[in-house]
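note to self — DONT lose this again. spent like an hour looking for the file last time. sequence + predicted structure for the chain T wanted, 103 res
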Amino acid sequence: QVVSLSPATCLDSGLSNCTTSLVTAQIDGDDIVNMRPKQHPEEGEFLKVLYFPMSELLTRINDYAQKEGVIVDARVYIYAMALQQSKGKDSLLQRSPGRIDKK
């Protein structure tokens, strides 16, 4: 079920006119069809599914990329960086926009 859809966003600002929209979906992870989904790559397309714990995502991506000599999609890497940087910052994320707490 689609929960939200972003406006068009730029992928390669200044390099191309490529845009994308980000979709937030609600997925029932307990449904058997969602436990081990199957890919359907197009001809010549290669996909490899890797399962990493969310708490170790950035570290595991870095290790895998170095070991295998692969380039990670920037959107996946940025997501992993955001997860890493938000660790232990629940109070910061729950602040209202524009609010500055002085200690």
